[in-house]
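User: Could you write out the 3D structure of this protein bound to zinc ion? I've included everything you need below.
Assistant: Certainly. Input first, then the structure.
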Amino acid sequence: MSPRYQPRRLEAKWQEIWQARRLYEAREDPSRPKYYVLEMFPYPSGRIHMGHVRNYTIGDVVARYKRMRGFNVLHPMGWDAFGLPAENAALARGLHPAKWTSENIAYMRGQLQALGYSYDWPRELATCDPEYYRWEQLVFIQMYQRGLAYKRLAPVNWCPKCATVLANEQVENGRCWRCDSPVHLKELDQWFFKITAYAEELLADLDQLNHWPERVATMQRNWIGKSQGAEIQFPLEDGGEPIKVFTTRADTLFGATFMSLAPEHPLALELARGGAQEAEVRAFVDYWSAQNRSRGALEEITKEGVATGRYCLNPVTGWKMPIYVANFVLMGYGTGAVMAVPAHDQRDFEFAQKYRLPIRVVVEPQPTKNTKNTKNEKQPVAGLTAAYEEDGVLVNSGDFSGLASARAREAIADYLEAQGLGKPAVHFRLRDWLISRQRYWGAPIPIIYCEKCGMVPVPAAELPVVLPLDVRITGEGGSPLAQLPDFYEVSCPNCGGPARREVDTMDTFVESSWYFLRYACPDYREGILDKARVGYWLPVDQYIGGIEHAVLHLLYARFFTKVLRDLGLVQIDEPFQRLLTQGMVLKDGAKMAKSKGNVVDPEYLIEEYGTDTTRLFLLFAAPPERDLEWSDQGVAGCHRFLHRLWNLVNSLLPELQQVAAYAGDGRGLSPDLQEFRHKVHRTIKKVTDDIEDSFHFNTAIAAVMELVNTFYLAAENLPRNTAAPEVFREAVEAIILLLNPMVPHLAEELWQALGRQTSLQLCCWPEAQAEALEECAFTLVVQVNGKVRSRLVAPVTATAAEIQEMALADPAIQKWLQGQAPRRVVPVQDKQNRTVLINIVT
Ligand SMILES: [Zn+2]
Ligand SMILES: [Zn+2]
């Protein structure tokens, strides 16, 4: 009687043994190649969901596979533990965010351990630990001293529901990334990180990231948004500072007929002041400053504006251009002022039609041979129904008429520069990273405001600025820290006079921008990072996480790495060598979500089927980068497969325990065994290739399943000549080794059942044998009078005569012949002239 497959029991057993043996704790070892695999760490929201399980299972398979390939593998886990949900939970349940967070961490850690992930637990870190964020505060101070962290008054995104500001990256289509509320612009004095100082490098280094999904690189490229153009000055009609404009279309300058300012542009109110338009402009500015005018929302709104009553001059035509304040111009992009060219920009075109402003065509499509450019000053503007936005040939543009757009852009920029009216310029869409948050559950910003000395960073020796825990969280009246005199009333580190501590905390994306570095030395007390250990482990060889972080975490982490490099703390330019963005877990066609009622709790699955089945299903159902559709039948199928494997190995155990695995090159084995070995080694090669090339675990698993099916037939049918048990043992060992990264508990149990003493986790990945990969046998079909009566395995080396002899000697055929000699034997050959079918005519 073979033992029953009891996944829960054996999984708990092995998890305990692995932990006791500390198998997954990594040590620096320069004699071995290192491999750092990392999954994006979770926010401790309470429970692990299926998306997490998929993410971490992929990472765990990679970690186990690389260990088996001889790499010194680092595979840590930790907690992105600051953030708003902890405060919301505190409000809803009266639990302190710290308690809520640490309880969640404890629960989720248990869940991860039950999933059998091979994490290096002693390296675990939580970002809300003062021992973590003290180093972040030190980085902040060093950035402040280099001008990379600065405070300024600026219109910023404000989420009324979260009651805090947001970075541009955290606003999606005008809405808060977390709660989906419409975001407003608000003028506030805030802390920024100068990510724009790295714009050029962040863009250029994307070209090095050959193993990132192209989609992510493209999203970052677009977000950074480099454009080459010209900065042009438009003098005011009655003197004063000219208005500066950035444009990528200097070739249309002769067609600029009015000027549009963003409502937040400092000139908007200043120009209108004292004029007839003042009240109207003020009302317009007040109204639109409070509206959702982020980039996404702009597409939706009706273009509107109001004249300031003032004029500027087109620097090349000298025309008077009315200055408008327009709702579709953003302060955050370019200079907040736009030269309006209605003939060649659709938004300007619609605006000009609405307010009856002149439209002047200055670019025409490339003329074909027959339609000669007449340089006619009168253009059919009346018939114009839309702006012509393409490049073409300049008309109505003075000396520049006749030039192609591209040439004209350079020529006009050069001309402006010579005249002192402008210059060629590069602009980025990327803005500085707004990092202050008016929230409690975050890392305090280590700055003190002194009446005499101004802003003073907290001295390094006094770090960390510990987030006080004895606060009342009411959700009202701004940050609880601002209501805590014990926290904010301090004396100035410089002059000792009365001073006030900053009460804003840092965006939690700051913590996740460098946690992967700290994993290399989580116990380091001498400074931010231990250079030697970070130098050994970094960069991360394989990073795995969701695509939703493309222009958030993945951009910030790249920026932070470059900053830390320039601070002399790391020697790498890029943190993540390879990136895999795994697909979502769907059920009934939609992402699993509580609100949709289609959630499957991983805990239930583990209870019902065990961890190995859960892992196997998530790996088998789809390639990792694609979305995965949940299927109860799929889970049951994976469970059945593990049962089949369990039963197969156990039924063969008495035979297998007697022998060692076959270690020969296949010569001298029967054709059946040769063919069987051929299948085993082809499977080894396929699984290795599928994992190595693309992490396509689904096809790798399918190949092993196919091998197990073949094995069942072989185990039933093959005669047990001397070598069969050895060949079977070779096959069983290969299957266990190949499946170990995916279903480590079952694999380890079977390994032990074979009588192996050392842990499977310390074993080597199997190698496909060259001899066994060569096709050694083929199937010969034998017919009697045109009907198939037998199939035989014949060696590829057999001659035609030997094949005929085999066919006639087959017991099944002899039965049909009943002792009579055949009248004729007709061989049929395949393309390689090999006899694959024999028809015996009686
Ligand atoms: Zn929000
Ligand atoms: Zn002072």
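The CA atoms of residues 78 and 573 lie 24 Å apart.
User: Perfect, thank you.
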